[in-house]
From TrEMBL, chain A:
Residues 47-109 form the ChsH2 C-terminal OB-fold domain. It comes from the Bacteria. This is Transcriptional regulator. SUPFAM superfamilies: Nucleic acid-binding proteins. InterPro entries: ChsH2_C, ChsH2_Znr, NA-bd_OB-fold, Thioester_dehydratase-like. Gene3D superfamilies: 6.10.30.10.
Automatic annotation (TrEMBL), chain B:
GO terms for biological process: secondary metabolite biosynthetic process. HAMAP family: HMG_CoA_synth_arch. GO terms for molecular function: hydroxymethylglutaryl-CoA synthase activity. Residues 218-306 form the Beta-ketoacyl-[acyl-carrier-protein] synthase III C-terminal domain. This is Beta-ketoacyl-[acyl-carrier-protein] synthase III C-terminal domain-containing protein.
Length: 129, 348
């Protein structure tokens, strides 16, 4: 990921910052410029709850190059306690440990490194609780 | 009085047992376990490093302190495994904890005592009234060369402490640092694994400096070993802290809550800070606690803390060290461990 793009996404990737529409209250994660519900353009910054539950999940066994040494790994759609849905890796568990409805919390992890000399990209993942 | 307003720890879930490492290198596991008093050690996940461990420990400290992170004026991280050679770990950690941008950041490195160095500076800045709060973290994904005795102990984890003046859970009563030029353990720039002087790491290094700092702080504070409820000494293995504690007049019961090394291993800069965190998890108001770190090179930082009434209020707001040590452990075989620790040469 180019450094400027990584830098722009830090608030959402590091601190789970979301945008709450001042007109209709819809939360957007990642934050948007225009509300997908009412079209308003004014938001207040808020944060996702760091707890949620698994809505659905899959296990990746044939991975993109940067993730090949992690297979098999789990990717889930997690609904945070504020009702926002997030696609995330679920780590520190086996594929058979996952179930729809299981509770998770978001943790801060390395997402990937740009080789041995590039920047290290960090962000959220989930673990079972 | 200046003291700790919030503390927190983090340990990865992965573990490797002494037996698994001994099997790989043809060593006698029982002799290693008996000699070093170790059973297993923590191993960082492939997506964990000093930065991620520091963030999780810092989150737990903030959960206990319940303060506004933007009021923290300094963040110092002590480690000998900072992921970048040039770019401070603290920049990422401060951003993740919501401490930026009005904050002073520095990374510290002093072998296994970098964490208490960070604590000493954070404490001093609050005491000098330069800022309301300062956070210090000791965190490592320790390196040990394959087949070396260090491989049985070098582990991963860390602890964070927020210093402030109000609502403290443990006040700092006294501090003392003791440092000399002692080449007992080192890693040159660009070298992947550290080297050490074998038996030279004992008497002239670990014992001399911990005893030097320990005896000096007892004299400065006018306290005796029997005045303390608990004490924590750096834990490169299980045996050294028990032995140095005995030399200073402490009984094993005083060391027990902070003697986390048999299940955790040596988390280097996170070692004595995590022993201290585990001790705060059980300490009662009025207890005196002695903390003495050791960093090769070599030096020791000593602190006397007095636990306050507030401890019982904040203790359950975050995971305790005992839970991190015992819950949800995932055991690795040596092959998985070698892959996790980047010991297998891969193509780009």
């Amino acid at each position: 990921m180019p450094s400027p793009r990584y830098h722009r996404e830090i608030p959402q990737r590091y601190r789970l910052e979301a945008a709450k529409c001042k007109e209709c209250g819809r939360m957007s994660f990642p934050p948007r410029r225009v509300c997908s519900n009412c079209g308003a353009r004014e938001f207040e910054m808020t944060k996702l709850s760091d707890h949620g539950k698994i809505l659905t999940y899959t296990t990746i066994r044939v991975a993109p190059k940067d993730f090949e040494n992690q297979v098999p790994y789990n990717v889930a759609i997690v609904e945070s306690e504020n009702g926002v849905r997030v696609t995330t890796q679920v780590v520190d568990c086996k594929p058979e440990d996952l179930e729809i409805g299981k509770r998770v919390k978001f943790v801060f992890r390395k997402l990937y490194s740009e080789g041995h000399t590039g920047i290290i990209c960090y962000g959220y993942k989930a673990v079972l609780i | 009085m200046v003291g700790i307003v919030g503390y927190g720890s983090y340990l990865p879930r992965y573990r490797i047992k002494v037996e698994e490492i001994a099997k790989q290198w043809g060593r006698n596991a029982e002799a290693v376990k008996r000699g070093l008093l170790l059973k297993e050690k923590t191993v960082p996940g492939m997506d964990e490093d000093t930065i991620t461990i520091s963030v999780e420990a810092g989150k737990n400290a903030l959960r206990r302190a319940q303060i506004d992170p933007t009021e923290i004026g300094a963040l110092y991280i002590g480690s000998e495994s900072h992921p970048y050679a040039v770019k401070p770990s603290g920049t990422v950690v401060a951003e993740a904890l919501g401490i930026v941008p009005d904050v002073h950041i520095a990374d510290y490195e002093f072998a296994c005592k970098a964490g208490t160095e960070a604590m000493f500076v954070a404490y001093s800045l609050v005491k000098a009234e330069q800022m309301k709060y300062a956070m210090a973290i000791g965190s490592d994904t320790s390196q040990g060369a394959p087949g070396d005795a260090l491989e049985f102990s070098a582990s991963a984890g860390g602890s964070a402490f927020i210093f402030g003046k109000e609502n403290t859970v443990a006040d700092v009563i006294e501090t003392h640092s003791y440092t000399t030029d002692t080449p007992d353990f080192w890693r040159r720039e660009g070298a992947f694994y550290p080297l050490h002087g074998g038996r030279f790491t004992g008497a002239p290094a670990y014992f001399k400096h911990i005893l030097g700092a320990g005896e000096a702080i007892l004299k400065k504070s006018g306290l005796r070993a029997s005045d303390f409820t608990y004490a924590i000494f750096h834990m490169p293995n299980g045996k050294f802290p028990l032995s140095v504690g005995k030399k200073l007049g402490f009984k094993k019961e005083q060391l027990e809550p902070g003697w986390v090394v048999p299940l955790m291993g040596n988390t280097y800069s996170g070692s004595s800070p995590t022993g201290f965190s585990a001790t705060l998890d059980v300490a009662q108001p009025g207890n005196l606690v002695l903390l003495v770190s050791f960093g090769s090179g070599a030096g020791s930082d000593a602190f006397v803390f007095k636990v306050t009434e507030k401890i019982n209020e904040v203790r359950d707001r975050a995971e305790k060290v005992k839970d991190l040590l015992e819950n949800g452990r995932i055991y690795l075989d040596y092959g998985q461990y070698a892959k996790f620790r980047g010991k297998i040469i891969m193509n780009e």
